[in-house]
Amino acid sequence: MATALFQGSFDPFTIGHADIVRRALNIFDQVVIAIVVNVEKKGLLSLEQRRNLIEQVFADEPRVRIVASEKLTVEVAHDEGATCLLRGVRTTQDFEYEQVMAQANRELGGLDTVLLFTRPEYAHVSSSLVRELLRFGRDVTPYLPAGITLPPKQ
Fold first, then answer.
1. Which of the two ends of the chain, N or C, has the fewest CB atoms closer than 10 A to its terminal CB?
2. Whether residue 124 lies in the annotated active site
3. Structural domain tally of the chain?
4. Helix (H, G, I), strand (E, B), or coil: what is residue 92?
5. Are 64 and 31 contacting, i.e. CB atoms less than 8 angstroms apart?
6. Residue 41 annotated among the catalytic residues of the structure
7. What is the pLDDT of residues 61-110, one digit of tens each?
């Protein structure tokens, strides 16, 4: 069984992230979404909120599992039995950076990386864009996958 690990903070999980995972399911038997979080970094959502929102998006897809961890990505991949890392790429600059990271992950963790370019209609969407729009009180629902409703600010 081929399993890919898709990692990131996903604060929040966007329509582009969901698209990458759905397309990866055409390649892999299973995708593990690892919410890897730096405990010192404060985000828009708590770790549990992030996990719950992503679970809502993939509630009908048994081949997607969500895990949360403070470990290094390669450690989580090994723990979850992933055969490779899955990364989304939005720009050519992202691609160059991800190639360097792929080489490092191969050398340090023995893991290959599969890079999937974000579809053009989602290329402008990022978690940081959504956070910035929220900061200015804008509606961000067009950037969120179906099923996600951000909890109100506390």
1. C
2. no
3. 1
4. helix
5. yes
6. yes
7. 999 999 988 888 889 999 999 999 999 998 888 888 889 989 998 998 89
